[in-house]
Specification:
HipA_2; alpha+beta; 5-stranded mixed β-barrel; 2 domains; HipA-like kinase domain-containing protein
């Protein structure tokens, strides 16, 4: 599904990227990332969202949306320039609050393990929560049963990913020792991750042509390293994937 932005309602004051809040032609409100986010990060966001879908993880509903050029040109203040026209990443706005430490044990253990392993897999170091604070990029809805929603994966595939820092700061890092030492679980996850990657080409084919370039004129290639990222993700079937740094 591809939507069209019909109205820009404002800009979020939260998050490093400060995404825009937009209404689309389906009448729903979305959190939208566009021109202000580097192409590498937009591509990482889309790929991770698709991998979450392949794995059945609870990511916020997302889609590719289009911002008409006339909406941007009609703004004389320049407030919408960071959004830009063309294809954007749109995540459905969820009516929920940020997950807090008191919620952690109420998240099913299987889901805690799924999420921490996913982040380890894609080198996403942006789901941190400790006693002194942090931002887990997880939304919490206290229903029956309560629901957890994953958001914000634009910082995945981090070339400077620090394993020790990840294990110290990740909201579900307490699950890692038992998870990584359970050989039956390791085999199960190997199969799940390998299966998710079977649609790698299909995932890449859903990216818009605009995101392959840095500039709107499409003269400067973004050079996202698709082949390198695929090889990086393939490490999930190796023993090295499960090796933790010395403590």
């Amino acid at each position: 599904m591809s939507l069209t932005v019909t109205e820009i309602l404002g800009r979020s004051q939260e998050g490093q990227t400060r995404p825009y809040i937009c209404r689309c032609d389906d009448g729903e409100v979305y959190i939208v990332k566009g021109r202000s986010v580097p192409r590498y990060q937009l591509t990482a966001e889309w790929i991770c969202a698709k991998l979450c879908t392949e794995l059945g993880l609870p990511i916020a509903q997302y889609t590719m949306a289009t911002v008409p050029v006339d909406i941007i040109e009609a703004d004389l203040t320049g407030a919408y320039q960071d959004l830009g026209s063309g294809p954007v990443f749109a995540s459905h706005r969820v009516s929920a609050k940020n997950l807090m430490r008191m919620h952690i044990k109420r998240v099913p253990q299987t889901l805690r393990r799924d999420i921490v392993l996913f982040d380890w897999w894609v080198h996403n170091a942006d789901r941190n929560l400790t006693e002194i604070g942090g931002n887990p990029n997880l939304l919490w809805s206290a229903g029956d049963p309560p629901a957890v929603v994953m958001i914000d994966h634009n910082l995945a595939f981090d070339a400077e990913f620090d394993q020790a820092e990840f294990l110290r700061l990740h909201v579900f890092s307490a699950e890692v020792p038992d998870l990584f030492s359970d050989f039956l679980l390791r085999d199960t996850y190997r199969t799940r991750l390998a299966t998710a990657l079977e649609n790698w080409n299909g995932i890449c084919d859903t990216l818009p042509e605009d995101w392959y370039f840095i500039d709107t004129e499409k003269t400067m290639p973004a050079n996202f390293p698709f082949d390198d990222i695929k090889r990086f993700l393939d490490r999930a079937i190796t023993d090295a994937f499960w090796q933790l740094p010395p403590t």
